[in-house]
Amino acid sequence: xxxxxxxxxxxxxxxxxxxxxxxxxxxxxxxxxxxxxxxxxxxxxxxxxxxxxxxxxxxxxxxxxxxxxxxxxxxxxxxxxxxxxxxxxxxxxxxxxxxxxxxxxxxxxxxxxxxxxxxxxxxxxxxxxxxxxxxxxxxxxxxxxxxxxxxxxxxxxxxxxxxxxxxxxxxxxxxxxxxxxxxxxxxxxxxxxxxxxxxxxxxxxxxxxxxxxxxxxxxxxxxxxxxxxxxxxxxxxxxxxxxxxxxxxxxxxxx
Length: 255
What we know:
Elements: H1 2-24, H2 27-48, H3 59-88, H4 91-96, H5 104-130, H6 139-166, H7 170-174, H8 177-185, H9 198-205, H10 208-220, H11 228-254
Helix pairs in contact: 1-5, 2-3, 2-5, 3-5, 3-6, 3-8, 3-10, 5-6, 6-10, 6-11, 10-11
Organism: Mucilaginibacter lappiensis
Family: Belongs to the ABC-2 integral membrane protein family.
Pfam families: ABC2_membrane
């Protein structure tokens, strides 16, 4: 059992390195996942921020959690696209004919999503610090934020894996990105939900991104998180379990 586990983790590391090389060679991925959220943050803070009333002294402090989630959402389409390409080109079948763990190739994409998003998010936080972002949060609060962001990354990664593994065309694989992008926009990421019309406000307050944004915002401002953190965790864990089961079911059909 120990030997099998060692081989499995070694195989995953190899697949992680393979996928990370593809990302670093892909300029459009870097632009979309890192540069676009930074550009959006600059736009909202320096162009639109003065007209948005959030009750905070510095709008970038309010905005940053939403920008971090948007960066993760931007990466979901690429996860689906890369999985589709590996499937279409027969990469998974080729790997499965070799003496490596059957699911290592799939987990390589999942780990790549975690690592690449972590790098992108650190760059975005550094830019936010240059823009005036300040947080009184301690190390434990920052670790909690990192954990929630990793959980949200896994949530979107496993959601994106389903169309990536089951789509018949590239467009079908990438279509998952569109609904995911809407969730941060219709939430408390940019403005308080109390400023929204009734039906929009009801949707914004009862979808997962708002609870995640509010939890991260409370942690970074060193405020009590209340029940929002449990709602955020329940959303993420529930969605991960469902998406993981669907993704693994599709993967095992042909891999």
